[in-house]
Structure formats: structure tokens, C-alpha cells
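haha ok so turns out i had the wrong file open the whole time. this is the CORRECT one, sorry everyone. sequence first:
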Amino acid sequence: MKKITLKAAAALAAAALVLAGCQKKDAGNIIRIGYVGALSGDTSLWGQTGLNGLILTAEKVNAEGGVLGKQIEIIGLDGRGDPQDSVNALNKLIDDHKVVAVVGTNFSSCNIPMADIADRKQVPLIATAASNELVTVDKNGKLHPYSFRMCFIDSYQGTKLAEYALKRGIKRAALIVNQSDAYSTSLADYTENAFKSGGGIITAREGAGGTDTDFRAQLSKIATTDPEVLFVPWSYSPVAFISRQARELGTKFAFYGYDGWDSLELPAMAEGALEGALFSSRPGFVLPAARAYGDEYQKRFNMALEAECLFTNDALMWIIQAINKKGSAEPQTIRDGLEETESFTGLMGTMTLERATHNPQRELAIFEIRGNENVLKEIFK
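then structure:
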């Protein structure tokens, strides 16, 4: 299907906000849900997709009569993938727009400071793919009562990917890490520890900055240590640079990645350098209900499809489940309903919630990059 530009997508999303909202209806008949995502910048495809997912799901819910006799209105603001901009967007959603819950972001570095705001202003915040432990608990292990998430956490994903590599007979591995990103450093730490604990050898661990585009110096050092696998805990855009430059240097090691790779754009961006690479994520569009939703999404928005719309659909439906359970759309009662969740089934499958940490328990899917597609290889438990 023909893709539209991100600029056009932004305009479409802005126009669609009116359709998903309640258009001049009495405020008492409206339930406002906020969204913070990167609506501009290098990862704006994720942010736009997340916002569009909320819009599409809100339209469907409203067409069926809404929630508690009220209509859902989606208000999305641009956090730019930046912690301070995301905090500012969250404050504006709560203070100016009077939202009762907020969905977003997919960046741990943004949600960690946002958690304090949600607690102080007592409005529930559901991160999509922000997987660092500190998104829902502070550095002392104390729960952020108003912070939740849809994804599994770094300790689980990092440990399981290391175990998967060991199970496949990998003995020597290296890491290249974004030193300025909590997501990257956390995953790297858990992967390194689990790999070594399982008898593997970490031959090198090289760091780089979040805005770097030239990784040849680090990759050259890594290549001299002769790893079988390079773990790359980065978001998808830099992964394309890393993989292409590694192959330009003549490296033969395999690439292993994480849910930050989960973009349908990545294989083409890597120009073949990631052929056969493996990464961990959720099942995503492999599930029949998610695939059907993806078809509906593309028909509605005519733009590239990303798993972020599944996250935001499920987050909104989880909020609605909590509202219906408690019979109230007040922020505090929504929070209580979320925390009391025994199980929730959405487009990404069924999750249970660990009440002490607000972390969901989910299955880990392993994908292989083949051509320009991400193909499900197996579910690893």
C-alpha cells in the first residue's frame, strides 16, 4: 500500500483527532485520554502510529455507544522522544486538557521522569514499550502508584535473549551500547550478566552516543575479539547504521536485537546487512486479531504499519476495562482498576499484572529478518 509522508501523516492525525473526539459536546459527556509520543523527529513513525491507533480504537468504541454513556476524546501531544519535552506534554495534558489517563511513551528515558509527574498529579500513565524497571518503580524499589506499562521489562527481555543465544550454542558475544539511553544500558547489563552466568564469554562491550551515526571505531574493536554474535540494544534507526557499517568492515558475526528493532522499516533501511538477524519482541501482527486490526488501520490511515498501534489500542481498551469495572472515569478509580487487573486480553495477547511492580507478564517472540520482512521464528519461554 502506498505510504504517505510523515508530514502528511501528522496532518491526517491532527484532523482525525476531531473525529475521535466529541466535537463541542458537553464536557460532562466526554472522557479525555491523552497521548504523549514522538510525533516529530527520527522516530515519529512510531509516535504517529501510536496516536493513530488510539484514534481508530476511540472511533470504534464511540460508534458502539462509548463508555458509561460517554464518548472518548483523544488528545495527542508531541514529546519528540525527549524526556523534558515529554514531561512538558504530560503536564499540559493534565493541567490544560484535564485528561483522566495518559498513554505513552515508548521510551524509558522519557517515562522515568514522567512517572513522578503522574504520581504527584494522580493521573494514571501507561507506557507502551518503555521497558526499563525505573518506569514503574524508583531506584529504591518503591512503586510509582500511577505508572503502568504494556511491555515486558528489561530484566526479562535481556535475560531471555541471552538464554536463547546460549541455547543455540553461542559461546562468544559482544555488545554495542547507547550510553546515553536507559533502555540500551539496562538491556545490555542484563544480557551480559545472564550470558556470563550461563557460561558464555563477553568478548567486548563498546559504547556510543545516542546521536552518533558513525560506529566504525567501536565495530573495528569488536571485530578483533572474534564474537559469534553482536547484541545491539538500540532503537531501529541507529541499528541500520551499525549493521551496514559492520558489514562494510567485513564482519561475519550475527546480529541479535531487542524490541527496539520492531519496525517494519528496519530491514529496508539496513539494505540487506541484517539478513538472518534475530530480535526479541511481542508476537505483534502474527496474531489473527492483530493482523485484522492492521488491515483496518492501513485502510483508515494509508500509512506504514507499526506495532505501536497495537500497544495503544490495548492500552485504551485496558483503561476502558478498568472504567467499566469501577463504574467511574475518575483518574484515581481508573488507577485502582488497572492495578486490580487479574488478566487483560488485547491484540497482543493476554497479559497478567504483577501488582507490586505494575509489570505485565507476556510471552517473548523471536523474529528473524528475511528480505524486507520480520518473520516469527518461535515463541521462547
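Confidence is low (pLDDT under 50) at residues 1-25.
again sry for the mixup
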